[in-house]
Amino acid sequence: MEAIQITDAKKYFYTRKKPGERHEQNVLMRLLRPAKEIVPAVDNITLNVKKGEIFGILGPNGSGKSTLIRMLSTLIIPDSGSLKIFGMDISKESLKVRRFINRVSVDAAFFKKLSAWENLSYAARLYGVDTKTARSRAKEILASLLLDEEKLDEPLENLSRGMQQKVAIARALLTSPVLLLLDEPTTGLDPVSKRQVQQYILKMRAIHDTTVLLTSHDLDEVDRICDRLAIIKDGKFLVCDTPENLKKNYSKNGRLTSLEDIFISLTGQDLTEDGTE
Ligand SMILES: Nc1ncnc2c1ncn2[C@@H]1O[C@H](COP(=O)(O)OP(=O)(O)O)[C@@H](O)[C@H]1O
Ligand SMILES: [Mg+2]
């Protein structure tokens, strides 16, 4: 059975135009033009991910990665299309679906005044993991991500972004890792921690046959750990294949191109230029 089945998913946002854009026009134009604009954040995306597969979504800022992950994690409702997790429709069976999903996000929803440990034990309780098991598992995970144990008891707001990101990862891995939705899990981490998180993702898959959907800015990362990847721009998938096939299909004069070349030729954009933190 497919772990993730997305068919023609669409999510448009209806947003107020930025004041700057409106002032540029003359008064008449301002009256005639709507003050709102439609942003097609996810525009007809179809995707199937098999159980145990690691699938990467690569795209610049604002391309729709988080919107897609948020729909799958039942945080926002799609405008149209169907999204299923292990055959369950995310709109009709959202409570069931939520039990399978773990989401890690850079803008992790934490209680910032509480300590890392308090946040983790809260999550553990939500998922029915007992406190003792949770504490020992959290220690093990955070140690392997090189986060000091003593940091566990400090208010989360005192921790750096990279440290908070590690806590977010630990939170996702504490509980049943059937499906991980990782929204830029390594953005903002130093190179060593990055590698550790990548190793951990591979380890989870090896042990638990975890299905992983991750978004990234990092070409090396998706090349290294993903079985397949899609390049997304303006809410649309431009390509979707294995890294090997992509490199082969886009090779020039018999020479394999890098994923980076493919990305630039497809999007006209350099990933490193788009404000990665
Ligand atoms: N809640 C929202 N309200 C209005 N616009 C949004 C909202 N969330 C995202 N967007 C817009 O949708 C587009 C895709 O955003 P997002 O999915 O966050 O991209 P990414 O994660 O790839 O950076 C962007 O243009 C963004 O400004
Ligand atoms: Mg995002």
Please, could you describe this protein's structure?
The longest helix has 18 residues. This protein has 277 residues and is α/β, with parallel strands linked by helices. The model has no long low-confidence stretch (mean pLDDT 86). It has a single domain, classed as Rossmann fold (3-Layer(aba) Sandwich). Strands 6-7-8-3-9-10 form a six-stranded mixed β-sheet, with helices on both faces. The relative contact order is 0.16. It has eleven helices and ten strands. The chain binds adenosine-5'-diphosphate and magnesium ion (MG).
Report a brief summary of the structure.
With 277 residues, this protein is an alpha/beta fold.
Helix/strand layout:
Blueprint (H helix, E strand, L loop, with lengths): L1 E15 L2 H5 L3 H6 L3 E15 L3 E5 L6 H8 L7 E6 L2 E2 L4 H7 E5 L10 H11 L4 H14 L16 H14 L4 E5 L7 H18 L2 E6 L2 H7 L2 E6 L2 E6 L1 H7 L9 H9 L10
Helix pairs in contact: 5-6, 5-7, 6-7
